[in-house]
Amino acid sequence: MRRLIAGNWKMHKTVSETREYIEKFLRLVEHPESREILLCPPFTSLYVAGEMLEGSGVKLGAQNCHYEKSGPYTGEVSPPMLKEVGCEYVIIGHSERRQLFGESDEVINKKLVACLEEGLRPILCVGETREEREAGMTFKVIETQVRLALSGIEEHTDRIDIAYEPVWAIGSGTPATPQDAVEVHTFIRQLLSEINPKNEGRTRILYGGSVKPQNAKEFMKHEEINGLLVGGASLDPESFAQIVYSF
Ligand code: PGA
Fold first, then answer.
1. Is 31 a catalytic residue?
2. CATH number at residue 158
3. Which residue range(s) make up the domain with 61?
4. Exposure b/e, 181-215, CB count within 10 A at least 16 = b
C-alpha cells in the first residue's frame, strides 16, 4: 500500500496562483513509486490543475461534492463533473464542512456512495472536538462517524481512505502527538476490520491537523499512519514538497 500525502488548499488560490504553484511544485517533486501525492485545489482551479498534472504522477482531488449527478442544486458540483476534469479523489466530511456548513453523517454517507458510483476515491474525514476529547468521548465520536459514513457501503471500504483529523488540531499550530494519532488510527483499523472483515488493511488511514515540514516525519515513522492530509503547509510548494519527502 503506497502512503498518501494530500494537500487540501481549502478556499485558497485563484487560477493564476494555481498555475504558478503547480509549475513550481512539479519541479520539486519527482514521483517515487513509494508514495502517492495529491493536490486538492478549489473547484475553479480543478480544470487547469487537471491539465497541468496530467502525466506527472501527481493526483488531483476535490474538497467536496454533491451526492446527485445533476439537478436543481444551485452552487453545487457533482461527481461526474469532477471526474471529467481529472479528479481521482474527493475529500468528504471535512470538519469545516460538518461545522460551518451543517453536513450531517447522513449527507456524508450519501456523498461517499455517489463518489464510489462514479469511481472516485473518497477521503472520509473524522475527528473529535476539544470538548469531546476532554470528556473522554474520542473513540465513541470516531466510531459513530465511521459507522454512519460507511453504512450500506461496508463491503467497499477498500475503495475509501480515512483521514483522522482532530478538530482542535486543525489550523491551530498544535498537532496531536504521534502517539495520540497512533492510538486513534489503531482504533479505526480495528473498527474497519469489524465493519468489513475482508478489508485487510486496504483503507489508508491518514493523519491531518497542523502537519508541517518540521513534524511530518514524526508521524510518518509509525506504520499505523498511512499518510497525511495537509492544509496550511500545503499552500507553499516548497513546504509541501518537504513534507512529501520527509520520510
Ligand atoms: P491544517 O489543516 O494542516 O492547516 O491544520 C488540515 C486540514 O484541515 O485538512
1. no
2. 3.20.20.70
3. 4-244
4. bbebbebbbebbeebbeebeeebbbbbbbbbebeb
